[in-house]
Target: Multidrug efflux pump subunit AcrA (Membrane-fusion protein)
Amino acid sequence: MKLPSAATLILMLAATCARLNAHAQDKPLQLDARTQARLQLRIAPLTAAHSSDQVSAFATVVDPTPLLTLLSDLATAQSAYTASQAEAARSQALARDASLSAKASEAATAQARSDQARVRLLKQRLGLEWGAYFTTLSDNGLRQLGSDLAAARCALVRVDTPAGQGLKGAKTVSLDLGALGFADARVLGVARTADARLQSPGLMTLVSGENAAYLSIGLSLKASLYSGGGTSGLLIPNAALLRQGGHVYAFIKTNAQTFDRRIVTPTRVTPEGLIVTSGFTSGEKVVVQGASALLTAATSVPADEE
Model:
């Protein structure tokens, strides 16, 4: 006797299930062993999985020249303010003794205030253009940073991901230098300019040590972001996943002839599949081959009820 083709069998199965229940998608499917064999169903037990909070990213070595220029302007402005502040104090003392005119004293005070305003403006520019981290450094810290950047003892590296995925909460960054190995970068904070192509706010990081000398300006690198945590749960493999109507499903074989369709709500997306923390139990048998045939049967509605 000639057996029906797989496509014909699927249609027959769909029609049979639909006649039994117009809402079969909400109820388990019942399939005998012969039908399961013809559909070539294959199952696998659900196993525990752990995914580190690693996110692939793109890194670019930043040109520090604009920062060094700004730091130089700030140092000059601070020196000018220190001098004008001292001059204003002397002028005020002399004006009180009538040794200097009030007009000259007021001019010295105005100059000190002008120099102070310029220092304040340059510090604001430092935060607006480079990030809040740089405004927290002392004058000595800024001078040391400028010196280290100029001597290639450290390097500024911008890190981006598509749509900013994984940037929030990132604590460390690992840079892939190819044949030169890997370099760790310290996260300084969110960058102040966005990457329009990736729609990423970006992170500004700092690489220190001997590897910094190999980070030439404009160099593009692969990077990995780490937040220091991870996600544990059960892995629903890619072969078991079905997408329909804005949901992701998987079929679980609950006994010899029963298949239960469940919505998959992932906690973490991995290259191997989706990690879930609810809705499934370790050891349950998930359909990893032939699931699409089951979905066709589960979602079919008789023509007279459409």
